Amino acid sequence: MKRNPDTYLLYEYMEKLPFTVRIKVCMDASVDSTMLKEAAQEAISRFPYFSVKVGLDEGQNYILEHNDQPIVVLPEKDERLTLGSEEVNGHLFAITYKDNCIWFSFSHALCGAPGGLFWTKTTLYQYMIKKYGAVDPPKDIKLPGTPVDDGELFFPDADKLPDDEPIARYTGGDTNLHLGRFLKYLLNPFAKDCYYYQIDIPSKDFIDYMKKIDGSPNTILAALMFKTTSRMFKEKKDTFLAGRIAADYRDDIGANLSYRDFVRFIHIRYEWSMKDESVQKLNMRARGPVITQNTPELGFERFKKIERVHRGVDEQPDLKAKKKFASKNSTFRSDPRDTYTISYVGQTDWGGMDAHIKGLYTITDGDLMLELNALKDTFCITYQLINKDPKPLELFCEELKKEGIPYSVSERMTRHMPKIKLPS
Fold first, then answer.
1. Which sign, positive or negative, has the C-alpha torsion 79, 92, 101, 115?
2. Residue 104 and residue 76: Cα distance in Å, rounded?
3. What's the pTM value of the predicted model, to 2 decimals?
4. Are the C-beta atoms of residues 69 and 89 closer than 8 Å to each other?
5. Overall average pLDDT of the 234-260 stretch
């Protein structure tokens, strides 16, 4: 039997790495909880593939069953939610709110940021038309009552994709400088809380800077983070620093309209000898790897590898063996080790809702990880760290100042990434 592809990341779930995502939206006024609850039920009705709960079949495979319980809308607390639990009616999606902010929390198994934004946009739109009256909708919004089309549900057949050898691939190897820092987090049973800062950069200033040095948000942040980390870590012989940039390859495999997650990474190796180079030159160095590693052949290769893992999971005799196989063969864990990560969804159409959104922040797992969202007037960066040491943030802000890029930065905040309760 063909399994639902949305279940496979669940086998890799761990307490400290639950593969969950939060999208935080800051509004121009306090949240009306009654209106938000009404909007949430209207919006989730448009996404039957998100209205699910996790079960186990007779072969001990995770399955996704229809969940007719209401999606929960709860006050945001200083603690982690547990998706899949009774508290959230068994859903893998949940909404919380506090003051003028709304958090959209979900399992990464079902979707990444693009798919999560489908749901977020619809919920916010239903909320805003209740609160503000008429609001121009985004062109790509999926309104309640409209049909789910084939492109939205599309999942490629790996056997029908080309086997062409990539022209170039990353061969720079792992950097282990960051490994000790991350192991401290994994080995410390009390390291349950990770942190983030919100950095806002005016769009006009950032776009002007991009034009000035002929860069993109990804390549500029890669250069700035190299400058930051080269001041954080001690130089050692035969070591280097490397950044990775999330690359969405859905267009390569014909899944450009799909809600599912199709992401791999572009790796950029920087040598210690480059640490005194200008951001403009480092930006140019990043452009080469972005061009050579952002090819359809690498997208085909990534997807075929993922499908081989899926088939391997299906072949295992029981749940314990499936989890072990999925963890051992994880595409995420087998990626080259890098020092820092940058993820940018790209320009997103918010229609008239943009006037009421003051900040948009994607919150994920990871250390020295930057998530970037673009609003009409603001680039919103989530700068994520695994401990309370503010030095990495301070060094990054110093680099922004040196480049004349204006910014504002929040206080330190706790991520509170949701856990997931799964049947066993």
1. positive
2. 11
3. 0.96
4. yes
5. 95
